[in-house]
């Protein structure tokens, strides 16, 4: 009788290829992005392998292709899709008490466009890879031979369309599909971060589309947008590109801020400190993020006086970020802190590394300092502390935090702790020496260098291999545990957001009855010292 009540088993094609379930789409985003993470990491190891020798190991052209593919994959195929596509798709409807996204078919289309953009980028590995860096500045990108830049532009156009469709979906879903009683001031902080991120994607992505459309037009259709000898201006490309790409830095970090705000109160057993300050500081970051783009262009020919307003705005935007860090530390203060794997990634791993990136960011926001440091490895250190020590570290925290919810199983905690220490140590060993190299004057984007820089380059390359090993530990642990891990109860962490009130994994339509919300999800814990068990739920006796 019970077997007869079970829904019919769907084929793989119906279950995954044609799915419009936001949870499955989020999982597909995550699996695809993790594949590209491994590929982008491989290109990073090729770059660091080349730099083991002052004379370089690969040809300079190959080196240019490697660092171009590494950065492009990590930004457009890994970090943004993981944070917005994977975490955002899976969690936002659950956090607001909805059964799905507002436009499920559009949601599925956004994933398939993302996958198509990745495939187009992979085709360049067959027909010729782009070699102008992830920024592809003209005039070199206009003159570069082969199809690499063309495939790069095509992939970014498709990825941009995916981002626009996804952002529209998030905006409508969050504004129109919240459960009864779910006011804006009762939303989870992750939902707040996704709402601001969606608006930034919606308003910023068209500028990138304009930049790369005019670039491809100069390459093939005889236009002279960026040909200075014919009246064009290469600076126009930089303005269009960075009007999107500096907000993109916050697109890559705001959802990470939201994830940290979900993890810290759970394992500190305290309500989040300063809920409204954290939520509204996200809005401030989203607004100010569109007024700082030209600090990437201080050495591109701008008058110093023109750079002053951007220097001021770049320093002001550090204030709402500092508000978040203060509130996170206040949440931990005198909490009953349990250092689980996700807690280590989110606290020591993220906060400890991101503060370093924040300090170096304030340094290079100053016009005179940036003019000395801009084309050196100091900038490489800064951006990697922000995006790896920041975004990627939080991605790993989120993967371990919501893994039991997605799979209904627990990962191997010993391997989890090992992977954290490999990541934390690897991050410091890889990227901190780059500050020394930059201050000593080593230029970035070079395949060979004077032998005086070899020691710190060798140290940095060793750190990169530690990170590579840590990544393999994480991926193997999660893949094995998804099938063989110990089964857990619906809420193994004792968290308070809505996704933990339903089974793990969640049912297809999330909630049998839409929840009625009467408070925000950051309430005091009755007994902060009482920890939930991660043992399997008891199996009911057969009737």
Automatic annotation (TrEMBL):
Coiled coil: none annotated. Pathway: Energy metabolism; oxidative phosphorylation. It is an enzyme of class 7 (translocase). InterPro entries: Cyt_c_oxase-like_su1_dom (IPR023616), Cyt_c_oxase-like_su1_sf (IPR036927), Cyt_C_Oxase_1 (IPR000883), Cyt_c_Oxase_su1_BS (IPR023615), Cyt_c_oxidase_su1_bac (IPR014241). GO terms for cellular component: plasma membrane. Its EC number is 7.1.1.9. Keywords: Cell membrane, Copper, Electron transport, Heme, Iron, Membrane, Metal-binding, Respiratory chain, Translocase, Transmembrane, Transmembrane helix, Transport. Residues 511-543 are annotated as: Disordered. It catalyses: 4 Fe(II)-[cytochrome c] + O2 + 8 H(+)(in) = 4 Fe(III)-[cytochrome c] + 2 H2O + 4 H(+)(out). The chain crosses the membrane at residues 27-47, 67-91, 111-129, 149-172, 192-216, 236-260, 272-293, 299-323, 344-367, 379-403, 415-442, 462-480. PROSITE patterns: COX1, COX1_CUB. It comes from the Bacteria. It holds the Pfam family COX1. Cytochrome c oxidase is the component of the respiratory chain that catalyzes the reduction of oxygen to water. Subunits 1-3 form the functional core of the enzyme complex. CO I is the catalytic subunit of the enzyme. Electrons originating in cytochrome c are transferred via the copper A center of subunit 2 and heme A of subunit 1 to the bimetallic center formed by heme A3 and copper B. Belongs to the heme-copper respiratory oxidase family. This is Cytochrome c oxidase subunit 1. It comes from Alicyclobacillus mengziensis.
């Amino acid at each position: 009788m019970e077997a007869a009540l079970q829904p019919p088993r769907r084929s793989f094609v119906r279950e995954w290829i044609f799915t419009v379930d936001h949870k499955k789409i989020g999982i597909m985003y995550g699996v695809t992005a993790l594949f590209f993470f491994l590929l982008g990491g491989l290109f990073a190891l090729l770059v660091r392998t080349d730099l083991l020798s002052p004379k370089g190991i690969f040809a300079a052209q190959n080196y240019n292709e490697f660092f171009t593919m590494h950065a492009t994959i990590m930004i457009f195929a890994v970090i943004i899709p993981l944070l917005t596509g994977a975490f955002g798709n899976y969690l936002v409807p659950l956090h607001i008490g909805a059964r799905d996204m507002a436009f499920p078919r559009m949601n599925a289309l956004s994933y398939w466009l993302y996958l198509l953009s990745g495939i187009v980028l992979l085709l360049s590995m067959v027909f010729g890879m782009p070699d102008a860096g992830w920024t592809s500045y003209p005039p070199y990108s206009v003159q570069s031979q082969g199809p690499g830049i063309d495939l790069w532009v095509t992939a970014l156009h498709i990825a941009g369309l995916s981002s626009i469709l996804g952002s529209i979906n998030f905006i409508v879903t969050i504004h129109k599909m919240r459960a009864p009683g779910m006011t804006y001031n009762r939303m989870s902080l992750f939902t707040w971060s996704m709402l601001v991120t969606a608006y930034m994607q919606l308003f910023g992505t068209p500028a990138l589309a304009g930049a790369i459309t005019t670039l491809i037009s100069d390459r093939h259709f005889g236009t002279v947008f960026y040909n200075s000898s014919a009246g064009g201006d290469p600076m126009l490309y930089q303005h269009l590109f960075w009007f999107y790409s500096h907000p993109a830095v916050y697109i890559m970090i705001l959802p990470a801020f939201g994830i940290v705000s979900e993890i810290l109160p759970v394992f500190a057993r305290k309500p989040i400190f300063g809920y409204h300050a954290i939520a509204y500081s996200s809005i401030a970051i989203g607004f100010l993020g569109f007024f700082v783009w030209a600090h990437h262009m201080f050495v591109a020919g701008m008058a110093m006086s023109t750079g002053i307003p951007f220097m001021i705005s770049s320093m002001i935007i550090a204030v709402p970020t500092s508000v978040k860090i203060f509130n996170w530390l206040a949440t931990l203060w005198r909490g009953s802190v349990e250092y689980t794997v996700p807690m280590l990634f989110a606290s020591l791993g993220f906060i400890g590394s991101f503060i370093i990136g924040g300090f170096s960011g304030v340094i290079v926001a100053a016009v005179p300092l940036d003019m000395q440091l801009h084309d050196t490895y100091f900038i490489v250190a800064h951006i990697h502390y922000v995006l790896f020590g920041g975004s990627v570290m939080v991605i790993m925290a989120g993967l371990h935090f919501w893994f039991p919810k997605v799979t209904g199983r627990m990962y191997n905690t010993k391997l989890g702790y090992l992977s954290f220490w490999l990541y934390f140590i690897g991050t410091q060993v890889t990227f901190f020496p780059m500050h020394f190299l930059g201050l000593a004057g080593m230029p970035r984007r070079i395949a060979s260098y004077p032998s005086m820089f070899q020691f710190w380059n060798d140290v940095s390359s060793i750190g990169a291999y530690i990170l590579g090993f840590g990544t393999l530990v994480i991926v193997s642990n999660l893949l094995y545990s998804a099938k063989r891990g110990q089964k857990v109860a619906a809420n193994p962490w004792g968290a308070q957001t809505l996704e933990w009130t339903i089974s793990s994994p969640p049912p297809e339509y999330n909630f049998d009855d839409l929840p009625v919300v009467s408070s925000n999800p950051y309430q005091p814990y009755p007994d902060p010292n009482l920890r939930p068990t991660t043992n399997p739920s008891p199996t009911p006796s057969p009737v």
